[in-house]
Design goal:
Strand content: 15-25%
Keywords: Calcium, Hydrolase, Metal-binding, Signal
GO molecular function: arylsulfatase activity; metal ion binding
CATH superfamily of the largest domain: Alkaline Phosphatase, subunit A
InterPro entries: Alkaline_phosphatase_core_sf (IPR017850), Sulfatase (IPR050738), Sulfatase_CS (IPR024607), Sulfatase_N (IPR000917)
Structural class: alpha/beta
Number of domains: 2
Protein name: Arylsulfatase
Low-confidence stretches: 1-21
Family: Belongs to the sulfatase family.
């Protein structure tokens, strides 16, 4: 589907939903937000993938709405999740890079940061998270238990999540030992544990409104998966040379088969969550969202984005603010409400999720956020568009990007303190192959002003493209 761009003064009238209103006495709707880890936009069948089987996620897209120009909050894990949870773009958000804490955890969000779970819990929702948090250990202000979640089950620390067979995970702030696991293999695969916990959460809260956040850790490397799933792909993907472990993480005898199997096993979990909703009669009163935290893995740990065409024709991978690093799949599903088989190219991104879910639940979003609700678009009503979309990432020397209409500027810190701003016309050049900055000085100047104005200094995450070195 070709890209369609609008200015801020024009409205998108995309009929994704059969217009319908919720009666005042109707039960509050449930929300399930599923976030894959490092899943490329084109690693799903519904986005054109031909080697990896994802029948359950494909079914959500067929029965709901698929977005083709949805963007993450950042090109890497922690800052992207911070944007998702708080509705602030990465120039205003608390966490702007992956910064490790010792002995375990990452740089925490602040006590005053209001998350999706905070807002929904205050509105009477039961809240649960199963998967990877990455925004602060339990003894910090960033603990998920201090940010609206009644129940947390999984990894708090992102480094810990690099193994799908860890020796322990957490239930709330208590360690749960996983017998039979040694970090490299074992009997308890965490994707399966998250699935089981999610089904139990739904069962326990079937009589009340709930928000279920499922930040799964698949398919982030290491490549690890139970044998029964691996066997589905062994010998099915042609030559599959063993990965020797020299690019990090652990070796694997059949990395292509292993990676595909990880995605398919996650897809199975998505299917079982939806089946559970249907079995309890909750499917029509539950909004299910599926996305990924950033672009596909940059070919470490046995991952092979070229083999799977993970980023399609987009430039860049995880860690880059080019399209391939921040464009992600996004699917919205609610049978009987969202019109089946709809596709939207509306440019939206992670800051928009919080205000959308608040509007969907019937409560006000926190103030001072950067996102806009796309609930009007889902309801077939006129949808205001963003003036611009903005990203910054303090890693890899410092990167910024801004999209305004058909134009995208990318600013990067170079060696020896130099900085370069590139300009691309996404309508003509979606693969960002031709830098047209020299041909469009007025557009370049306007977008460079955006890049400067949207960045707020953060001493914890200095940005070398703007902040002077100290």
């Amino acid at each position: 589907m070709p890209f369609v761009f609008r200015t801020a003064a024009v409205f998108l009238a995309v009929a994704l939903l059969a217009p319908s209103g919720r009666a005042a006495d109707a039960p509050k709707p449930n929300i399930v937000l599923i976030v894959a880890d490092d899943l490329g936009c084109f690693e799903l069948g519904c986005y054109g993938q031909t080697k990896i089987k994802t029948p359950h996620i494909d079914k959500l897209a067929q029965g709901g709405a698929k977005f083709t120009r949805f963007y993450s909050g950042s090109p890497v894990c922690a800052p992207s999740r911070c944007v998702l949870m708080t509705g602030k773009h990465s120039g205003h958000a608390t966490v702007r890079n992956n910064v490790e804490a010792k002995p375990e955890g990452q740089f925490p969000i602040r006590a005053e940061d209001v998350t999706v779970a905070d807002a929904l819990k205050a509105h009477g929702y039961a809240t649960g998270a199963m998967g990877k948090w990455g925004l602060g250990m339990f003894d910090t202000a960033g603990s998920p238990l201090k940010h609206g979640f009644d129940l947390f089950f999984g990894y708090n620390c992102q480094r810990h999540a690099h193994s799908h067979y860890p020796t322990y995970i957490y239930r709330n702030d208590k360690r749960v030992e996983l017998k039979g696991n040694d970090g490299k293999t074992g009997k308890q695969f965490t994707q399966d544990l998250f699935e089981e916990e999610a089904l139990g959460f739904i069962e326990a809260n079937k009589a009340k409104p709930f928000f279920l956040y499922l930040p799964f850790t698949v398919p982030h490397v290491a490549v690890q998966v139970p044998e029964d799933s691996l066997n589905e792909y062994k010998g099915q993907l042609g030559d599959d040379p063993a990965y020797d472990g020299k690019k990090g993480y652990q070796p694997h005898p059949a990395p292509h088969a292993g990676y595909a199997a990880m995605v398919t096993r996650m897809d199975r979990s998505v299917g079982r969550v939806v089946e559970k909703l249907n079995a309890l009669g909750l499917e029509k009163n539950t909004l299910v969202l599926f996305t990924s935290d950033n672009g596909p893995t940059h070919n470490v740990g046995g991952a092979d984005s070229s083999f799977f065409n993970s980023a399609g024709k987009l430039r860049g991978l995880k860690g880059s603010v080019y399209e391939g690093g921040i464009r992600v799949p996004f699917i919205a599903y609610q049978p009987g409400t969202i019109k089946a088989g709809t596709e939207s190219d509306a440019p939206l991104y992670f800051p928009d999720v919080l205000p959308t879910l608040c509007a969907f639940a019937g409560t006000k979003a926190p103030s001072a956020i950067d996102g806009i609700s796309f609930l009007p678009l889902l309801k077939g009503e006129k949808q205001p568009t963003h003036d611009f979309l903005y990203w910054e990432f303090s890693g890899y020397g410092g990167q910024q990007a801004v999209i305004e209409g058909e134009w995208k500027a990318v600013r990067q810190a170079l060696g020896m303190g130099g900085v370069k701003t590139e300009l691309y016309n996404l309508a003509k050049d979606p693969s960002e192959k031709e830098d047209v900055a020299a041909k469009n000085p007025a557009v370049l100047a306007r977008l460079e002003k955006r890049l400067k104005n949207e960045h707020t200094p953060n001493s914890n995450f200095p940005l070398q493209t703007i902040d002077p070195k100290k």
